[in-house]
Amino acid sequence: MKSKLLPGVIAALLASPALAFEPFVVKDIRVEGIQRTEAGTVFSYLPVKVGERFSEEKASQAIKALFATGFFKDVRLEVENDVIVVLVDERPAISQIDFVGIKEFEKDALKKGLKEVGLAESRIFDRAVLERAEQELKRQYLSKGLYGVQITTTVTPLERNRVGVNFNVVEGEAAKIRQISVIGNKVFKEKELLDLMALTTPGWMTWYSKSDQYSKQKLSADIEALRSFYLNRGYLDFSIDSTQVSITPDKKDIYITLSITEGEKYTISDVKLAGTMVVPEADLQPLLKLKAGDTFSRDSVTATTKALSDRLGNEGYAFANVNAAPEVDKVKREVAFTFFVDPGRRVYVRKINFAGNARTRDEVLRREMRQMEGAWYDGAAINRSKVRLDRLGYFEDVAIETPAVPGSTDQVDANFTVKERATGNLMLGAGFSSAEKVILSASIAQQNLFGTGNAMTLQMNTGRINRTIALSFTNPYWTVDGVSIGWDVYQRNVDPTSLSVATYKSSSIGAGVRFGYPIAEDDRINFGLAIDQTKIDVFDTSPAPYISFVNNFGDTARSLVATAGWARDRRDSFLYPTSGVYQRASLEVATPVLDLRYVRGSYQHQHWFPFGGGHALMLNGDIGYAHGYDGKELPFYKNFYAGGIGSVRGYQQSTLGPRYIDANNYTRSLGGNRRAVANAEYYFPMPGQGKDKSMRLSLFADAGYVWGPDDKVQASDLRYSAGLAFSWSSPVGPLKFSLGQALKKEDGDRTQKFQFQLGTVF
């Protein structure tokens, strides 16, 4: 049987008409040389089928199509008695990719990066792709400052035409920045400029922060920080003339030199508004963040542009454009700004859409909306809606987009995308606190019951101080206008004898109902009524006022307690606030219907100040007052206490205020009817946690004290402390640690530097 190389192949490659062949009808097609590729795959790329006429043009197309697949190193076509034989030489497939010597990266992360350049397991092996992969791997190391990295690649043939690719890496040591120099500065000292930069020379913490390792991205960010520093101080002509980065021959030391021109300081000569004023100019003037005579500041210009755009957005002009046009007078070193206002078309919101709420019902999100469908676009209302969703505590993140409706010039949709967090908690376990020691606890809690927004909690715990079983339910939207209803039943035993508190025991059982009503966007008032029965046990070591109270009122006291409260919450987040104000006032009155008569009130004011990047300062004040009335005493178990991780850290739990010495010559606290606590705490993210908000460190300063009925309230009585704290919203509940130092210790004060609380203590 005569076999010959198909002349059409040569014709396709050499384009020579002399090597043409006569077309023929294909009797059959065979494929030879394949090991992994299916014959059907080859057939699918051929431009001819059995029974069809095969020509020189189709032969050329077949060769090109098979080569283009990348599956084959060589392709030939032969013919035997009008039968086409396709002979292929397959490229090997990558069976496995492995790394040796990798310490700086996770192997899976590297494989993902190599896959993006075309090198991955099960793909066809290509030497050119391998070279790109080596360069990508080296680039990854260079980004970490490992300039001395050495990469050796080994390709090992395996059975069934496969190969294994092995990267042997000698990482070496990271190059360190030995010197950063700034040339050309006259107004500001070099040290002040270097303090603005994230890149630094080696220091005592750079082993952790790695800020002494060069990164092109970090240097670009540092250059922008320098530019912003100068532009915000009036140096409009500031420029970076050159940036030089050099590395020593041994690739261990890096030297960075920045050459700058500061220029002259400019002041604002005039500020004007121009354009289409759909909002009265008188309403826009107060939004200007700069005025004539001020030093030029780029941040002020940016803030003015944003404020004007937001104001127009509140009137429905979602696509308003505000441009700041400068007029520079280089002789007088002055600059005038004209803010051109182009409101565009007024638009309204067609639909409000929600995504990501797999468990939470749409109606729970929709009732928090302050932007209505079919109404004019209102930027403030949309942002307010986002804040309200975030405050629910059901979501880790809330994002908002307002895309234009296709085919319309005056409509947008408001798309809210949420990332749900676990709102249910089934916990059987143990907690520990420095006050209560071991706490065995069990709880079933769901803050978003069946996705309805209702909350139900069954709590049980056993500790040395508190033993509690409580069931509560809250419907935050009992009515459509936001009236809430809730109820509670509980049984609580209190035994504070393990604390430095006066000895007694109490056992309470009670139930109550409560209502809440929104009186403003951020304000709610609440009312409640509860009945309580408390049995009290006193001992020989109990203080005389406690024994006297039991003698006068018996060991069982019943009360019908009415409560009223007001709360204003303007914080930006329920879980991880960084800005805003929280205020709360409450009043508890034992009505004269039953045994007890007392009034107990408290007020808390908390203010958060953001500093960017997850940093925030929290100032908190909390005062309380209680007293009996109608000739009755305040029940001693309604006293206020201070000291410990919840009030004034650095002092033992509940030890501040009036005290007495028991029969065993042990000093114990009595508590009091007046309390004042103040806290200042600076929060910052846990280093290395990135965008994770659940862990935060803080520096704190606390002050507080408790006074008895016969004491005079004096600032000199206050106790002070300061220290470092750590908080974590863990899956099993909040964890809090503090390392505090008592700054004012009087005789009899009990201090405790390290305090902690693990797990939820009810």
From TrEMBL:
Residues 1-20 form the signal peptide. One of its GO terms (biological process) is Gram-negative-bacterium-type cell outer membrane assembly. It holds the Pfam family Omp85. The keyword Cell inner membrane does not apply. PROSITE patterns: POTRA. Residues 24-91, 92-172, 175-263, 266-344, 347-421 form the POTRA domain. Keywords: Cell outer membrane, Membrane, Repeat, Signal, Transmembrane, Transmembrane beta strand. InterPro entries: Bac_surfAg_D15, BamA/TamA_POTRA, D15-like, OM_assembly_BamA, POTRA. GO terms for cellular component: Bam protein complex. It is found in: Cell outer membrane; Membrane. Part of the Bam complex. Belongs to the BamA family. PANTHER family: OUTER MEMBRANE PROTEIN ASSEMBLY FACTOR BAMA, SORTING AND ASSEMBLY MACHINERY SAMM50 PROTEIN FAMILY MEMBER. Part of the outer membrane protein assembly complex, which is involved in assembly and insertion of beta-barrel proteins into the outer membrane. This is Outer membrane protein assembly factor BamA. The lineage of its organism: Bacteria, Pseudomonadati, Pseudomonadota, Betaproteobacteria, Rhodocyclales.
